[in-house]
Amino acid sequence: MGKYCKFCGSVTEEGVCPNAHDFKKMCVNCADSITEDGETYYCNNAVNKEAAQKKISDAITAAGVNTYTVEFALHPVALKKPTLKCAQWTLSNEVVEEIKGLFK
């Protein structure tokens, strides 16, 4: 990092800006998040979906259902807490464009 903060232009102290510029990796700013009304969010992340499919398949196997083949499709449900952090987060292009618009 240079002498100046890239976000606000303040002089940095040992490479750290004296102002807080913290952003949270959450569903509301994730590229894999879907919302139709701006209030209800759905996770459309492939890694999260695969993990859920594996848990369901493992539960079926553990239940001893081995005489049939099970096929199922998962569909995202509304997230109860879209402001929680997510390990599979990717920054949304929409947010990038909004940040660009903040520069004057």
What attributes does this structure have?
single chain, 104 residues, mainly alpha, 2 helices
Q: Can you give me a brief rundown of this structure?
A:
The chain is mainly alpha-helical and 104 residues long. It has helices at 46-62, 93-102; strands at 33-35, 41-43.
Give me the secondary-structure topology:
Blueprint: E1 33-35, E2 41-43, H1 46-62, H2 93-102
Q: N- to C-terminal separation?
A: 22 Å
Radius of gyration: 20 Å
Low-confidence parts, pLDDT < 50 over ≥5 residues? Answer: none
Mean pLDDT over all positions: 89
H/E element string? EEHH
**What shape does the CA trace take?**
elongated
Strand content: 5-15%
What is the number of strand segments? 2
Strand order of the largest sheet: 1-2
Helix-residue proportion: 25-40%
Judged by helices, strands and strand pairing, the structural class is mainly alpha
Largest sheet: 2 strands, antiparallel
Number of contiguous helices: 2
How many discrete domains?
1
